[in-house]
Amino acid sequence: MSDPWIESMLANAVGGVLATAIVGSAAYLRTRVPDISGVWTMTVRVNKSEFNPYKGMILTYIVMLSQRAGNVSGSAEKVYEVSKKNPKGYHYQKSARMQSRVSGGVLGNVFQRKTFQLLFDEAGEHRSYISTATLRRKHAGLLVGTYDSTAGNSSGAVTLTKGLGLYGLSLR
């Protein structure tokens, strides 16, 4: 015959260990930050702008990101544009590509869905400007979100697709 006090204590200990393991595993999965390092093709669709020629513009960039924990840095180059000025599209030659410095990271806390915010500091054709992209990961190769820029006080939708995309873009 066993002592009920010992059985109760062992049952509570085993239950505590199991509960801790379950809660710990859930917390680990919840706090894990997805790695977005690598080469991406970013497409920006300008929906609103105070500068009429920017309305409806579609811009494509090659973006290279490096991530350490929740911090992201990198660079981007504008490689393609569809606009009122270039309705059939324009491929920027390698020497004429406008470059941006990229910085940012993860927003929110462990109880929120992971959202990345990236800041693009770009030397434009006529002046420098700053843009932000607020992104959510749809799957390992796709980030989607919103875009805001001081260029024409414009905003719109942004998509980052892992790799060089369908445009046949070249890093060289």
Descriptive labels:
1 helix, 172 residues, 9 strands, alpha+beta, eight-stranded antiparallel barrel, elongated, 16% helix
Level of helix content? 10-25%
Q: Rg to the nearest angstrom?
A: 23 Å
Q: N-to-C SSE series?
A: HEEEEEEEEE
Instruction: Note the beta-strand portion.
Output: over 45%
Number of helices, where a helix is a run of at least 4 consecutive DSSP H or I residues: 1
CA-based shape: elongated
How many strands, what sense, and barrel or not for the largest sheet? Answer: 8 strands, antiparallel, barrel
Low-confidence stretches: none
Structure class = alpha+beta
End-to-end separation = 79 Å
What topology, given as strand order, has the largest sheet?
1-2-3-5-6-7-8-9
Mean pLDDT: 87
Number of strands: 9
Question: Can you offer a commentary on this structure?
Answer:
- With 172 residues, this protein is α+β, with helices and mostly antiparallel strands.
- It has one helix spanning 4-31; strands spanning 38-48, 58-68, 71-82, 90-91, 99-107, 115-123, 128-139, 142-149, 154-162.
- It has an 8-stranded antiparallel barrel.
In short:
This protein has 172 residues and is of the alpha+beta class. The protein has 1 helix and 9 strands.
SSE layout:
Layout: H1 4-31, E1 38-48, E2 58-68, E3 71-82, E4 90-91, E5 99-107, E6 115-123, E7 128-139, E8 142-149, E9 154-162
Antiparallel strand pairs: 1-2, 1-9, 2-3, 3-4, 3-5, 5-6, 6-7, 7-8, 8-9
